[in-house]
Amino acid sequence: MDIVLGIRLKDATLIATSKAFTRGISILKDSDDKTLNLNKKNVIAITGESGDTINFAEYIKGNVQLKGLREGHEMESDEIASFVRHELARSLRSRSPYQVNLLVAGVNDKEEGFLSMIDYIGTRCDLPYAAHGYAAFYTMSLLDHHYREDISLDDGLKLLKLCEEELNKRMPMDFKGLNVKIVDKEGIKVIDF
């Protein structure tokens, strides 16, 4: 029942995840953050089996930081998305594949927003907006209708608010609100939503 949403803006990317940590129909925690900052301009939002999400996210973060130390510069968003896709595809061929779906959000070297959706099979798609989990069933029509290529931060937050209202109306459980982060040229910031 996790919710992961992403919206690419003209010069930034918004990422939103549900605060509820659930097991079956029980809410175990109401302040869970399903995102992980990889470097100054990239973040992943991850959903799936609880052990796999933590292990895979930390594995990716460690490798992104190691590559940055070795090469002398931080990995770009596109490179990170390709690395994540490769690692998921490789784990699929092992005895214990990771059961995770994620969004890679960031800002590229041209200071344009970047958003990539990657599923547990290793399928990657760069998109202007994306959703994983039940959020995709309820919010994609809103995103299809209201998204524009030149969308501003204020309009992106309004669109995210519309998505949250729709989820509150139609979700069969309380997801305890959304954690929202913005990735722009200045870095990663948490937005009070």
What does this structure look like?
- This protein has one domain: Aminohydrolase, N-terminal nucleophile (Ntn) domain (Glutamine Phosphoribosylpyrophosphate, subunit 1, domain 1).
- The chain is 35% helix and 34% strand.
- The chain contains four helices and twelve strands; from the N terminus they run ββββββααββββααββ.
- A hairpin with a 2-residue loop joins strand 5 and strand 6.
- The chain starts with a strand and ends with a strand.
- The model has no long low-confidence stretch (mean pLDDT 90).
Main attributes?
193 residues; alpha+beta; Glutamine Phosphoribosylpyrophosphate, subunit 1, domain 1; 5-stranded antiparallel β-sheet; globular; Proteasome subunit beta; cytoplasm; Ntn_hydrolases_N; proteasome; nucleus
